[in-house]
Amino acid sequence: MRLSNILASLFALFILSLSSSASVPERGMNASLYRGEVPKAYTFTYNGTPFYDNQGFRKGEVFYNGKLFKDVTLNLDAYSSDLQVRPEDGTGAIILYRGQVAWFTLGDKIFINPAYFGIAEAPDAFLEMVANSSKPVLSLTEKKVLTDAREHNGTDIGYIDPDYDYTLRTCFLRTVSWYTVSGGTLERIGYFKRLKLLKLDGDGTGFDLSKVSWQPLKGDIYSGTLPSLARDTTLSALPDNYFGPDVKEETVDVQYASNILRTSYKNKVYTVGEGNRPSKGKQKVSGRVLSAETGETLPGVLVISSAGGSNMTTGGDGYYSLYLPQGESSLSFFFEGKEDLTLRLRVEAPGSLDVVMSDKVTLLPESIVSAESMANHRRTQMGVEAVSMKSMRKIPSAFGEGDVLKAVLTLPGVTSVGEASAGFNVRGGGADQNLVLLNGNTIYNPTHMFGIFSSFNPDVVEGVQLYKSSIPASYGGRLSSVLEVKTKDGDMDRWKGSLGVGPLTGRVCVEGPLNKGKSSLILSARTTYSNWILNAIPEQSEYAGGKAYFTDANAGWTTRIGKKGTLRMNAYFATDRFSFVGDTSYHYTNFNASAQYNLRTSDGGFLDVTTGYDFFTNRVSVRSWKYYAYDVDTFIRQYFMRADRTRHFNNGHKLSYGAHFLLYSLDPGIMSPFGEESVIAARSLERELALEPSLYVSDNWEIDDCWSVEGGLRSAFFYALKDGAKYILPELRLSGKYRPLDNLSFKAGVNTLRQNIHLISNTASVSPIDTWKLSDADVLPSDGAQAAAGVYWTHLGSGIDFSLDAYYKLMRNLLDYKPGATLMMNPRLHDDLVPVFGKAYGVEVMAKKTTGRLTGWMSYSYSRSLLREMQDRGSETIASGDWYNAPYDKPHEFKAAFNFALTRRYSASLNVDYSTGRPVTVPVGSYTYNGKFRLAYSERNSERIPDYFRVDAAFNIDAGHYLKSLLHANFTIGVYNILGRKNAYSVFFDPGTQIAAYKLSIFAVPVPYANLNILF
Amino acid sequence: MKQFLTYILSALLLSSCIYPYEWNAESLPTDTVVIQGNIVVGGTSTLSVSSPHGIRSSFVDPVCTPYIEDDKGNRYPSTPESGIFRNVVPCNFMFDTSEAPDDALFRLVMELSDSFQYDKRTYSSKWLSACPPPSISGIHFASDNSNVYVSVSLDGGPESSGYVLLSFEETWRFHAEFLPQYVYMQKGFGWSILSVADDLGITDPESYFNYWCWASMPESPVIPVSMSDNGGNSLDHYLLHSFSRSNNRNHKRYSILVRAASVSADTYRYLKNLDETSEASGNLFTPNPGEIASNITCENKPGSMVLGYVNCFSPVSMRAYLDNSLYQPRIVYDGLAVPPTGNQRDYYEGGYRPIYEMSVPGAAGGGYTTGIAWGPERCINCVKAGGTLEKPDFWED
User: Which of A2, A519, A810, B276 has CA atoms 20 to 30 A from the CA of A18?
Assistant: First the structure.
């Protein structure tokens, strides 16, 4: 061998040994601790932290495998109940096997593993030792995932995060449960018992950890079964091969865990190249992509940079390398079978970033589920229902589109007068008693095509929230419910979109950044091509010659102002035109625009300032006779401004207050002749103007984990400028919650509400000729009060939530109509109206499953809604002054909406809807008058149409995992009314000596549909 | 894909349907009375009393003795021959109120005798006054390609209530569809087709064949109208009636008598509600039905049900004529046939008559066959078509 070769070999060995020694860090005396499972990354963005608190890793002690390890850097992942330890070299954390951990300290807190000591009924988690009197007090802090942005900063997430990002949908929610040990069994305790035990511990004002001695741990709690804690014994290593030969100690795991740790802890920004010297232009960022489960490199991973133009696929060694601009950007990683991963980066200089991708497991859905379950237990309010757009898309609807209102109708306590009717009824309230808000704007007619579609494009809706009982003090103006619809913000990182095609409609949605990471735009539009169906209707049909057309569009612009501010501007437009038989056509339009500035405040709360404009117009065009051709238009214009402030206090209080200002301008009728020959006199009903300023304040006080109360006052002042009528009546909100167990809560509440704008209708369904009227000297504001109580229980094993709600509502000054009332162009409309009392009560039982492959809910409601005329008008008094059924009174209701995930892509949905038929007024005889057969009717609404029953089924195919593909598609195929039941929409009668009765079924046969959504 | 869309389309088109429906509801009380009264100040008042048709019950019309009285002490009994009593539906009465003072209040009173389902009782209406009558300023005719429209203009006057009742009577002169050139009659020992002009020497075939007639329609149901669309107290070109251009009303001369009366808001509301709730259409936006209380009550038994209303008004009328300038004669072949010679007698016995010579397409293979076309007798005889040869008294040529 030549000397040069020998030297070269020696040099190589030297270099190899150097590199080898560099890649295997020195573990120190606790090295035996650092062999364990690598923590999984949380591959979704969130607020809060999965860890016990936000103090990060810190020094502590851990009694592990019978030995005490001191000066260990550790932290407790309260989401997975894992104790993580970090080696001295600062590399990634390792999860200690919980079964071997007896206790550990984290800062000045002490945690024990009750299972380690054989304590019965102990949760598989670490409990904090709070007090150690003869009856110890322990607490279990858990973190859940909640998919609900907003208002969780502070006590909800466990600390006040000044960087709380309200645009993130997901946050880690903190819950604390309390226990004591009795007879060797861990016993869960409530507030009073905890208070009592803590009093035993000292002065009763609380506890001081400095007073906590270690000694009772050996005795009182563990009854002598506790092994010696050996606090003073320090061991440095486990026996050789303690974990067995299968456990490998590999540097690579630890290194990758380092990145994971940063992801899982903050999950906001990775800093790349920190401390390195930046190069000119773009900086090189490189690293390897590995499997979290196996530690193996992953070839073929698609890596996409938000900076644009930079993307690549990892090579055989899992290595990637991209050039990114300095500053903030993001990298997305896609690989079949792995969770999609997007990391936000701050690139300072060239550097490396290794990435670990986790198998696609059900972590996120499971988390959402448990969060949903727990959210209801935590919330003081009752009667709050949230439905995500994801859930809505799975609920079958008549023509396959995910439909906001149809999804809401699957909830207990929500009904409609017919399956294709506009409007909905909540807990015995009229259709006009629901405040429908889209990004804060009021939508007066939220439906298209007589109610077949809701007027919200499903592609742009993020989710809806329905308040049907405890309506927050920040909302007012309607008696029964608030339906809050939120649209998505545009994507700040990349442009993307979707196209949707259904039997009747087509949709498009495009979103993307205008200034990456700072501002975004989202645009969507939807239209119908239904005329191809209507044109094909046979001429002899009543609907022949009909035309129907609608379109709607949304635009949203979002920009971040500073670190804490966000400005959103939204606009919405929807219009409908339709006519049945030639001569009369209907046209209505919603237009809404708003600007909202949201500022996150340092106290964990927020300040929202919103201003906007709502516009609704309705036109009826009559062309049957050229001399009497005319248009009648009505207009509602609303100008509003509101400021809402929420503050969090450390003592458990969340204070909300604000001021709203609303100006109504209502044109109840403008009649215009059409054509030169028309003799119709142009005339207008007097415009109605009114001011409605209001103030509110409410406080949600989390007294402890068991008790919370929320109280609020809303003072709404109404001033009708037309006749100077003024009305002011404070509205009360009060609700309370008692939660003795994590999975059991009791709630009760009362509230009063007032409504100053009324829908005047004498048809069963909300119709295009209905008119709106403001309160004035003749038409008093409607007001009402509701008391409700409920019990909520979650079965922990199955994850099924059970709820039982009962309510009782009283209302007055509701408006009914006199027979023969003229609603259109009536200058003395109030003469045709009668004020009525309203009374509604009911019970709602619901079981909801949000975990596993089968998800959904089923509910049964018994409810009544009755009316009674307030005045005595002699023989003309409706129902002789007795209570009579409201048109939407449906005593029995059963609903079920289920989705079964066959695989991650394929799922089947089933929807069941049963309800008692709605009340109608039917003939009880006929007679001849004025040369025609006439019908004599029963008392108002004393009879019912047949019961309603419908079953729908759908099969859904979600987007595939072909991540290299630029296009993805969702496909839904289903059948509406699969049983083909001929449900009655209405019944009507032909007069004669023998009255002929008929029922009209809107969907009398199974209606198949298909819907395709293309994502790009 | 096309097949799939067709399937969707088919399903959707069939999805909305109307089906017969069985329902159960309480029937009307058996002592329910239906009353339609019109107190016509300055004219002849009428009253109709009947029983309703029940859902499950049968009713027998009541027996009653009615009269009208005013607040000045006058009583207007029904004319002796006007009442048609029980088992005839309905019982109709007339009252001579031509001399009634127009500034009085009136009411209708009915005394029911004991009967099968009505015990002895008395019904009376509220005291009513007649609104000042409107003045009809014009009756207008217009047409488009398919219809003729009749509209009316009127002025309610300064004291107008804003509501009027309109009704109309139609009379028109029309002719049979065809003026025959032939007749089929016995001549000698047999029957044969003869030429009207050549064989019979008839010089006025229109009279011979009852070619010209008058027809009329009885008074229409009253139409309640609000004058708010025209500013509150007048109507301008209010569409009253329409008929097809090809209707026989356009054959020669058409006349319409329009009656109008101002009524109170209550009367208008009652009649409008009655129309709306009786003409059930099943439309999605049909107003919910409701019953307006009658203005008639039972004095002995206030809770007993009364259907109907008593109106009080003072009507005016106007007649207008329309000549047949709009008429476009049709060439009608429908219903005509050319019977074989051997079957002519059978056609005749069946009500067919020869009309004129015509050519009809022959059997397969082409060509035309010429023969005498026959048609139903109503095609050549306007009396058979529902007309009358009697000229109405009011008719102006």
Answer: A2
In a mutagenesis test of the A interface, which of B5, B7, B12, B271 is the best target, namely the one with the most A β-carbons within 10 Å?
B12
Q: How many CB pairs under 8 A join A and B?
A: 230
pTM for this prediction: 0.69
CB pair distance less than 8 Å for A820 and B292: yes
Distance CA B383, CA A418 (A): 53
Say if B284 is an interface residue toward chain A (CB within 8 Å): yes
Q: What is the pLDDT of residues A558-606, one digit of tens each?
A: 998 887 788 999 999 999 987 765 577 889 999 999 999 998 777 667 8
In a domain, A3, yes or no: no
pLDDT of A309 above 80? no
Q: Could you give the CA distance from residue A789 to residue B23 in angstroms, rounded to a whole number?
A: 38
A700 located within any domain: yes
Nearest-CA distance B235 → chain A (Å): 9
Binary contact (A536, B229; C-beta < 8 A): no
Name, in order, each residue with C-beta under 8 angstroms of B93's C-beta and a sequence gap of 6 or more: B46, B47, B48, B49, B66, B78, B79, B82, B83
**Domain assignment of residue A127, given as a range:** 10-251
CA distance A403 to chain B (A): 19
Query: Exposure pattern of A565-597 as b/e (b: 16+ CB <10 Å)?
Result: ebbbbbbbbbbbbbbbeeeebbbbbbbbbbbbb
Is there a single domain that holds both residue A723 and residue A861? Answer: yes
Q: What is the CATH number of the domain that holds A392?
A: 2.40.170.20
pLDDT: is A878 or A201 the higher one?
A878
Alpha helices in A618-716 (DSSP H): none
B78 touches B96 (CB < 8 A) = no
Angle CA(A415)–CA(A421)–CA(A425) in degrees, nearest 5?
25
Q: Is B231 on the interface with A (CB under 8 A)?
A: yes
Judge whether A974 and A953 are in contact, CB under 8 Å: yes
Domains and CATH numbers, chain B: 33-132+262-315 (2.60.40), 135-173+215-261 (2.60.40), 182-210+331-379 (no CATH)
Q: Are residues A193 and A302 in the same domain?
A: no
Q: Based on the domain organization, do A349 and A388 belong to the same domain? A: no
Chain A contact present for B23, CB below 8 A = yes
Count of domains forming chain A: 3
Question: Do A341 and A384 reside in the same domain of the chain?
Answer: no
pLDDT, one tens digit per residue, over B35-52 is 889 999 988 998 888 888
Spatial separation of the C-alpha atoms in residues A260 and A401, rounded to whole Å: 39
Main-chain dihedrals φ then ψ at residue A509, nearest 5 degrees: -145, 130
Element (H, E) at A17: helix A3-23
- Under an 8 A CB cutoff, do B293 and A927 touch? no
CB pair distance less than 8 Å for A937 and B277: yes
- What residues contact A24, with CB distance under 8 A and at least 6 apart? A251
* Residue that the structure tokens 């159960």 belong to: B24
Residue A371 and residue A311 share a domain: no
* Domain end residue (candidates: A302, A323, A357): A357
Contacts A624 to B, Cβ<8 Å: 239
A598 and A732 co-located in one domain: yes
Task: Tell me which residue has tokens 């390398």.
Answer: A321
Cβ distance A875 to B90 less than 8 Å, yes or no, reads no
> CA-CA distance, A965 to A983, in Å (whole number)?
45
Arithmetic mean of pLDDT, A485-494 = 86
Of A934, A984, A996, the CB nearest to B278: A934
Chain A neighbors of B12, CB-CB under 8 A: 503, 533, 1007
Task: Give the rounded distance of the alpha carbon of A158 from its chain centre.
Answer: 21
Q: Do A999 and B18 touch (CB under 8 A)?
A: yes
Q: Is B392 on the interface with A (CB under 8 A)?
A: no
Domain assignment present for residue A5? The answer is no
